[in-house]
Specification:
The protein has 359 residues and is an alpha+beta fold. The protein contains 7 helices and 16 strands. It has 2 domains: 208 residues, no CATH class; 62 residues, Winged helix-like DNA-binding domain superfamily/Winged helix DNA-binding domain (Arc Repressor Mutant, subunit A). Strand 10 and strand 11 form a beta hairpin.
C-alpha cells in the first residue's frame, strides 16, 4: 500500500507542475515554476470530487511578469491542448487510485484559465478544474474521503483543502488539520501523509422525516397529556364564562330589585314624600318667594323671607314688589313689620290694612 501511495504522490505532483513545454506543434518552450500550489477537493454526496488546483507565480519583477504574460497568452490560445495534457497526467493518477482502492475512477471535465491577483503582492495564477469520479466512498449517511491520495507528500509551498456538502458534519479526520471550518479541513506543507492518510469522515444530518421518526415515541407519549391539557383549558374557559354570566344575572337582578323597591314616592329626608318641585337652586327669585309662602300656609313676614333666602332687605323688597305688581301676592303691615300673603289667604282679623305702597 505504501508503494502504491508513493506512486500516487509522484504522479499527482507531476501533473501539478505547470509548464509551457511543447505539447503540440507551434507551442514555445517557455516554462514557469509555481511559487504556491493550492489544491481544493469539494467532495459530493455521490463520492465524486470537484477539484481545483491553483498555481500561483510571484510577479516580483518585469522579467517574471513578462514570462507569465507569455504563458497566459499561450494557454488562452491553446486552452484545449493544456487541458488535455493535464487530463492525461491525472488519468495515470486516477488509475493508480483505482488499483489502490478497488473503485473505478476517472478524470472528467478538465478546464484551465489564467488570471492576475494581489494577495499582499502580485501573482499570476493558472487554475485547473476537473471532476474526479469515485474519489470517496459514500452511502446514505456517510462520506469517507482520502484513500485515493493516501501517502501524498506536500512540499512547503503546497496546501490541500477537503470540503464536504453543507448538509454533512465532520465526525473524524486524520492527521490533525492545520486549519478547519464547519465544512472543511486543510493541511499546509511540508507534510508527508501516512499510508491511511489523509482521512476525512463526515455524517449527514438526519433529514426532517427521520427527525420526526426519532421524535415519534416522545410525541406518542406526550399527545395524550397535551389533549388533557387542552380539554382542561377548555373546561376552565367554559366555567369562567358560566360564572361570569351568573354574576351578570345576579347584578342585574339586584339592580332590578333596588329599582322596584324605590318605585314608591321618593323622599327628601327618608320620610316625607317628594314633590315635582325642582330644587331651590333651579328656581327664579320670584318662584322661591312663592314656594316659601306655600310652605308657610300662604302668609309670612317679609323679614323672614330675607332671612330664609339669605337675601338683603333691598333685594327682598324688590322681588316682593314685582310679585305684588303682577298680582302673585299681597302685602300688608302689622305694626312695624310687613307681612306677605298669597292672594287667596284669609287675613281676617288683621288690625291694619295692607300697605300698597310698601316694597
Amino acid at each position: 500500500m505504501r508503494r502504491v501511495s508513493a506512486v500516487l504522490a509522484v504522479v499527482l505532483l507531476a501533473a501539478l507542475a505547470p509548464t509551457a513545454a511543447a505539447a503540440a506543434g507551434g507551442l514555445s518552450q517557455q516554462s514557469v515554476d509555481a511559487d504556491v500550489v493550492v489544491m481544493t477537493a469539494d467532495v459530493t454526496a455521490s463520492g465524486d470530487a470537484m477539484w481545483t488546483i491553483d498555481y500561483r507565480v510571484r510577479l516580483a519583477d518585469d522579467n517574471e511578469t513578462q514570462a507569465f504574460e507569455e504563458l497566459q497568452a499561450e494557454i488562452r490560445t491553446n486552452e484545449s491542448v493544456y487541458a488535455d495534457r493535464f487530463r492525461d497526467r491525472l488519468n495515470r493518477t486516477a488509475r493508480a487510485g483505482t488499483n489502490a482502492t478497488g473503485r473505478e475512477m476517472a478524470i472528467e471535465n478538465v478546464s484551465v484559465e489564467t488570471s492576475r491577483e494581489n494577495v499582499g503582492q502580485s501573482y499570476g495564477v493558472v487554475s485547473y478544474a476537473f471532476r474526479w469520479t469515485n474519489f470517496a466512498t459514500s452511502n446514505d449517511t456517510h462520506i469517507r474521503a482520502g484513500d485515493a491520495i493516501a501517502g501524498l507528500y506536500l512540499d512547503r509551498n503546497t496546501s490541500l483543502t477537503v470540503r464536504w456538502p453543507v448538509e454533512y458534519r465532520r465526525v473524524g479526520v486524520r492527521p490533525s488539520p492545520d486549519g478547519e471550518t464547519d465544512r472543511s479541513v486543510a493541511w499546509q506543507g511540508r507534510q508527508s501523509f501516512a499510508d491511511d492518510e489523509p482521512t476525512v469522515v463526515t455524517e449527514k444530518y438526519p433529514p426532517f422525516s427521520d427527525a420526526l421518526g426519532q421524535l415519534s415515541p416522545i410525541v406518542s407519549f406526550a399527545a395524550p397529556l397535551l389533549a388533557l391539557a387542552v380539554l382542561a383549558a377548555a373546561g376552565y374557559a367554559v366555567y369562567r364564562y358560566v360564572r361570569t354570566d351568573e354574576t351578570s344575572e345576579m347584578v342585574a337582578g339586584a339592580t332590578a330589585s333596588s329599582e322596584s323597591d324605590s318605585d314608591g314616592p321618593p323622599t327628601d329626608d327618608g320620610g316625607s314624600e317628594n314633590t315635582d318641585t325642582p330644587p331651590a337652586e333651579l328656581l327664579s327669585n320670584e318662584e322661591q318667594v312663592l314656594k316659601l309662602l306655600r310652605e308657610n300656609g300662604g302668609r309670612i313676614k317679609q323679614q323672614r323671607v330675607a332671612s330664609d333666602l339669605d337675601w338683603t332687605a333691598a333685594k327682598t323688597s324688590q322681588v316682593i314688589g314685582n310679585l305684588r305688581d303682577e298680582g302673585e301676592l299681597e302685602t300688608f303691615r302689622i305694626g312695624r313689620e310687613n307681612v306677605v300673603t298669597l292672594p287667596e289667604t284669609d287675613v281676617t282679623g288683621d288690625t291694619e290694612p295692607p300697605a300698597d305702597g310698601d316694597k
